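> tool_call: predict_assembly(chains=two)
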Amino acid sequence: MVEGNFSVSQRITLRRRRAVASILAPRGDALLVTGLGSTTWDAFAHGDHDLNFYTWGGMGGAAMIGLGLAIAQTKRRVVVLTGDGEMLMGLGSLATIGVQRAANLAVVVIDNERYGETGQQETHTHFGVSIAGVGLASGFRDAVTAYTRAQLNDAIDLIYDGQGPVLAVVKVRPESEPLTLPDRDGPYLKGRFREALLGRASGP
Amino acid sequence: MAKTSAVDWPKQLYQLLVREKVTQVAYVPDAGHKRLIELCRARRSMRCIPLTSEEEGVALLAGAWLGGARGVLLMQSSGVGNCINMLGMIQECRFPLLVLVTMRGEWGEFNPWQVPMGQATESVLENAGVIVQRADEAERVVETVQSAWRLAYDAYRAVAVLVSQRVIGAKAFK
C-alpha cells in the first residue's frame, strides 16, 4: 500500500467505472456525497439512490458537505466520492476534517490526474502531489493510495470499517467513460435526500 | 464617541443559538466574535468547527442541513469574499443559511487592506443571492439575528447579518 508517497513513477492500471462499482457495492446504508463531474457520473452509472447527494457545482466543497453530514448523523457512515481536481480545490478542508476527527467519515478520491470535464488537463497529482500525504499530515486516522486491485480491496475495507476520518485515493486511468448524468435539480436532490434520511415531514 | 453600552450581545446571541438548538458553529475566528466563540465552545451540545477558509463553512452547513442539523457561520467581512462560488450552491439548492459577519473597513478603520472587502461586503452578498440585514447598534443585534434566523430556517433562505464595526469597536460588554 502506498501511503502519502510523493511518487510519479507507478503504473496506473485501474479502470474508474469498475473501481467505483467495487467501492459502492458494499455501501449498505452509507450516505454518499459526490463531487462534481466524473465521480458524479460514475456514482450514477453504478445506480441511482435517494441517499446520493450529487453535486454539479460548489467545486472544492464536497468533503466539507460530507463533514457537516457526518457530524449531524454520527450513527451513519458518510462517504464522499470525488475527483482529484475537486479535492485539490478544497485541500484545506482535509485539515478541517482531520481536526474534527469525524469517525464516521470516509473521503474517496478517484484520481485520474486530470481535469476530466475541461479537456483532460493534468492536475497537480500528475506532477507528484499526494492527496493521501496531505490527508495524513492533516490528521486523518488513515490515508492510502491504491494502484492495484489488491490495494483497492484493502482501501474498501478502510472506507467502510476503518475508524475515520479516512482517506482513500484510487489511481485510475485517464479514460473517458459514457456520460451517465443524474438529475441536476438542486432542490429536488436535497429534498429527496432529506426525505429518505429524515422522513416525510422534514420539510425542504 | 463610543456609547458605554452594557448590552452583552455575544451572550444574547449565544442564548439564541441555544434556544434554536444549533449543533454546528463554523468559524474563522474574528476578534469581534471572540466571546461568542468562547461561549459556544464551552457548550457540549454545540460542535464548533474552525475552518481554514470561510467557504468551507458554507459547504459544511449545507451538509449539516442534509443531515437534519442547524448551524451558523461566523466570519469577519474579509471572509465574505472567500465564499462566493460556494454560495451559488446554497442558492441553487435553496439551503437555509445564517451567516454572522463582523464588519471591518467601514467605521474608524485603520487598516486600508480591510477597506475593499468591507465596502464590498453588502453588495457582494446580495449579488450572491444572500439577504443582508444590518445591526448597527449593540441593542439591536440579537433581535436582528432572531429575525434573520426565522428567515433562514422558517423561510428557507440564505441570510447574512452584518454587525457594524461601530458595535464591535465600542466596548459592548463588561
